[in-house]
Structures are given as C-alpha cells and as structure tokens.
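User: Thanks for the earlier help. One more: LisH domain-containing protein ARMC9. Can you show the sequence and predicted structure together?

Assistant: Of course, both are below.
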Amino acid sequence: MGDILANEADLLGMIREYLKLEEFNDTVCSFDEECKNKGKLVSKPQGNTLRDSKTLITQKDLLSAFDDGDYKVFFELWTENIPSEVKDTDSQAQRLEFYLHIHFTIHPLRNHPGSHDRAEFDKRISHFRQYLETRGAALSQTTEFLPYYALPFVPNPTTHPSFRDLFQDSWMPQLKGKLEQFLSVTLKARSTPRLLMLYKHLSNHQEKWEQLQLQLVESERRTASYMRRFNKMQASYHNLIGITAELVESLEATVSGKTITQEYLQNVCVRLFSSRMRLSAAQSADFTRPGTASSMLRASIALPKEVPMLPSLDYEKLKKDLVEGSDRLQSLLLQALRWRLTRSLHGEQRDAVLQAYISNDLLHCYSTKQQTVLHLLRSKNETVRQYMARLINAFASLAEGRVYLSQIHCLVKLLTETLRKEDEDPLTRKNVLVALQKLSLRRSQQTAMIADELIGWLVDELQDSDCLSDYTLEYSVSLLMNLCLRTKGKRKCAESAKHVLKVLTDLLGHENHQIRPYVNGALYSILSIPSVRQEAREMSVEEILCCYSKEENPELNRQIEFIIKQLNSGQSTHIYLQWPSPSEDLMETDLDKEEVLQPQPRELSGESLLTTEYLGIMTNMAKAKRKSASLTQPSVDEPLQRPVTPIISNAPDQCPASLSRGQNRGQNIYWYLVYYFYYFFLLDLSSRTAYSDHGGKNVWSRRRGVIF
C-alpha cells in the first residue's frame, strides 16, 4: 500500500495526461473534480515542459543563425533537429531548404552590397554548388528552381535580371516567416504520453523476456547434452586406463617369457570397442588377423563427415517483408522458406533450419502485433494463401514444428476458417487439411478442433467421398479418427450419431482400402458411448459389419470382430496406460509438387533470394533432434486407438524399413501403431484394478501421436 501512495500522484498524472492528449475533455473535467474531492494530488507532466523549453531554444537558435547569415551553425542545428524522414520526403521541407541555401549564399551581397567580402562570397558559392550536386539535385527538373542552378556561374547576381527578386526587401522576411511556420509545426510535433511510453516499454520487455526464455531452454538443453557427452567421455577414459594397465602388465609378462592367448586378446579388444560399436559386431570381428584391432581403433576416432550449415538470415527483415511486402514478394519468400526446410539434408541440417525458424519466431508465435505472418492465410491473393498453407504444412511435418505451432493459439481457428471458406484453390485446401491432421496428434490442438465443430464438417465432407481424391480422403478420415479418440469428440459424434454411423459404414465399402484402419478406429471409439451403440443397433450396424467380414481379409475380419464386440458390450471401456511420447518426422515430397509460382527471368527466388537480400549474422541455432521412444509393436488385429497420420508412399527413404517390405499401406501401418486397447482380452478380468475405469474418465497420461 505504501508503494501505491508514494507513486499515486505520478500515476494519476499519467492518466490525466493521456486523457487530455486524446481530447477526452469531459472525462478530464470529471477526473479533476473527483481527484479534488478526494484530496488526491495529480503530478504535472514535467517531461513535456522540459521538452517544450528545449524546442523553443532550438527554434530561437535557428532563427538567430538565419538573421546572422551563419550557415554553419544553422545547418548543424537543421540536421540535428529536423527528422530525416521530413527532410527526405516532405516536398515543402525540400523547397524551404533550397531557398535557405540561396539565402545564406547571397547573404554577404545583401548586407554589404558595395563592399562585400569576395572571398567569403566565393566560399559560400562553393558550398551552394556542392549542395546542388548532392541533395539539391532532386529539384533540378523543377521549373521553379531551374534558374538558380546558374547562380554559381553568374559573376554579379545583384544585377542579373533572373535573380532580381532575391534582393528585394520583402524576400528575406517572407522566407523567415515560412521558416518560423515550418519550425513551429515540425519541432512541436505531438509528444508521446508517458502512459503510452510505459505500455510500449513493457511490451518490448515482454517480447525480450520470451526470447530470453527460449534462449534459456536452449542453453539448458545444450548443457544437458554436454554433460551426457562428458559422462560418456569420462567412462570411456576410465575404461581406457584400465585396459592400458592390463596391456602394460601383459607386455611385462611377455618380456618375462609368458605368452598371450588369443582369447585374452579377443576379450581386451571386445572391451575396447564395446562402447563404440554393437557388442555382437565387436565379438564377431577377427582380432587374430594382424592389424584388425589397430585399424578399428583408428577408424573409431575418425571425424564424422561435417554437414554444411545453411547461411544465417536476417529474420526481422524477412518478417517485415512478409507482412508488408507485395503479393509477389510474399509468395516468393514463403516458397523460399519452405524450400529451405524441405530441401535441406535430413538430420542436423534440417534440424538447424527448423530451430532457426523457431528461435527467431518466424510465424510470430510470441508477437503481440495484430498483423502477423500467419494472417497471410487471409490474403486476397490466391497464391499467397496457398504458399502460406504449404509452409504451415511443412512445419507440421516435423515434431518440433508441431510443438511450435501448438503454441499459436489462433492457428487452429485460422486453419479451420480457411478450410471452410477456400473454394478457389484446391491446393490451399489440401495443405490446410493435411496440416490440421498432423496437428491433431497433439491433445491441445485436438481440443481446439473439436470446439471449432471440425468433426461435423468432416462428416459432411466424407458423405460425398467419391468427389474426394485418395490423398484428401485418407487424411480426412484419419483426422476424423484422431478427433473421435477424445471423449469430447465421441460426445460430439453422439449428437448426430445416425449421420456419423451412416457415413462411416458407407466408407467401409469404399474402393480405397487404405482408409479402412481409420474407419474401424473411429467406429470402435464412438461405440463406447451408450447412445451411439443404441443407435447402431437400431440401424442394424452389426449386420452391415458382418457383410464386410465375409471378405477374404483376415486382418479386416478380426478388426470387425472387435467392433462387433464393442457394439454388444454393456459398458464403456476405458483403460489407463502410460504412453511414450513419439516424435517421428516425415517431410513428404508432395509439399513441393504442383508449384504455381515460377520465377521470371533474372528474378531472385529460393535460396538465392534469401542469401542475396536477407543474409544475417548468427541466427542459426543447431538443435539436436529428439530421439523417439521405442514403441511396443501392437497386434495387427485390433482397431486403431491412437492418433496417427497416413503413411505417404512416395517418401520411401524416410519410412521405417519394415514398411517397404509390405504390399500396401493398409497392412503395414499396424507395425507402427501404438494402440489404446493393448490387452483387450484382459478386460474380462474384473479383478485387475490396474485397468479400471478410473472414476468413469478416460485417462491418458499422454496424447501425442505418431507420424510416419
């Protein structure tokens, strides 16, 4: 309370100053009256008084130098106090400056017409000529000033008819009047109120604080990484000292005539290399062959091939041009930034690019500005919208990118808004849909999508599935399944259970069999709701499922058995499991397909645009890629009960090895799924409380999904 009273007068003064400056005159009167009645002191804006006093002194000095003809003092004050944007862009300021130079040039001729100092006049003529060749050159094409460009070459300007007006008695007072008017407007510009300055100061500090937080997290990560490396090096050092001691003893024994057995040498070499290579590989190496151990030892310390890092960029300039630039520039920059991410080498180089984007807040995640890079999704230009959607999709393809995007609170709303409104460009719509699907692997984004009625929109779209491409169909169904895994999503489906069940059962008969795992997962999930089960029984869903179980597909038949069992169960099944936090990446080649933007001849684009116009200093921060937790291989029979993303067949170099051995994605996808009902048959064992309902709530410790 004491602190408040001590600063109360200043606070009230700042409030009054702001209200008065914004011309809330009635409010100011009421404010003054209430402060007076309560006996509150209100400080006066001393800063403004001092500022006004300084302005008057500057104005007086300029006018005094004008009268004395002292061009050096005048133009020093002019340069120091007149803002550059006014001098360089304001036409009235440029015209006035030109006439002021004329005034100071002819000043000796006006004051001493008969006996002027020729040397001083020549000096001023030289200064005027220099002005004409620099700042004054901009007015050389103006008819009003064209005659004065001949002034330096006229021997006696006082008698020349073109300059007669300059020596009239009225010319100098008129120029001084224009100068006074200009100075009163320019020097007494509207000052910034203290309250607004304080707000801007706090906003800047908030942004700096958030940047420092990011740097702190990065520093802690690097410290932990260095500690792990140090501990590993220390353990290797201790191991090496022990082996060295044994080898010295063996050498001493050899000198004494004792022999060294092959088994002993094999054991020493295995211990020596076990920390640098797999134990099986070390044991299988033939150390009896001369030179094997020494060759392996030299190879173990060979420096790895260095991955080149891409040049750093000036991200502040980039973000400014992305927000304020032309449609063409915005599109080229969005394309170049995406290419830098998608075309970088998988691993350390790509991680460094992504981390640079995140640490420099490329998408304005932490910005308080109203107009950000993300709002390019609302651009009137079709290409800008599409390339913004492509860049977001590229971010969402990487685990760290999804973490960054999930911190942008308005992102899901912007994406769903674009998805519903975008009719002109199917590529924009496709990229937005795929980005949403990848973001649905995170719980917070699932919640936002469900709240934004995305489930209803998806069901309506899938109702006419024949009009959708296979790519769009797979991502739409998998997105729907991911949202249906949440309790809120199931309840949302229950609101229109008949419609949802009709669409899902129709999709089972679609010719694209790749969508069946997702359809089965969605059906299995929503059938845990009693009202949905009741509606399914009335619709004879079991008979429909039995029709599909007659197909010669054992895996599909087994899944349908689980769905039917869920349909006929009398209670909801909820399981409590501790899930790992997988973070696999897949940068699809589709991201760079069907480019509608092609550079014109001699137009910069891609990496050349970035490194030519936006080269920066030390903005790249390499970040080690998180290792994904090893996942337990699930049964291939049960419906999907974990958020997933469709596998893209055109990126085999980055898919797990076991995927390439399969005949189709529908069969092989199960090798990578973490499923919710891992021990389905144990549900009948009611005595196992570890798998209980947990108070009727579907409890998951983690909800992050797997992306392939």
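User: Great, one quick takeaway?

Assistant: Residues 50-190 form one domain.
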